[in-house]
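Reopening this one. Same input as before:
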Amino acid sequence: MTHALAVAAKNISNAMVSKLVLSVMMTFCVSVMGAQVIIKEEPEVIRLMQVYKSTNQQEPTIKGWRIQIIATSNRSEMERTITRFERLYPQIDYNWEHNAPYYQVRIGAYEKKEDLEAFILKLKKEFPMSIPIKDDINKTELIQG
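Same output, byte for byte:
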């Protein structure tokens, strides 16, 4: 009886090894042959994706974040801040607005607030008034190389 159990266990073990080897060989053959996978989407999924793309293309802006490095009623102070910023960060674009009585200088374009947090900590050393500001961001501004 024990001999029969040992033979059965050996056969099961051999079968498992055979399946493993077969599986590895099939994986190798598929990767070597460059097998093609065909994905069949449901018509409703295709329709919903088209609606999503169309809606997304019509809207050129999203709600995002910028960093405001200064807000002051003194235009000379704003101009000095811009000059210092340009010297330290020549590769980063900025824009300024006059929302009476304040001149506001804002930089960057971030989709999520978390995306700007590391940089704002660095900025605060030179520009201590830096704060995150919610703003309308053109989608093209978010595309970075």
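So the earlier flakiness isn't reproducible anymore. For the record, The radius of gyration is 30 Å.
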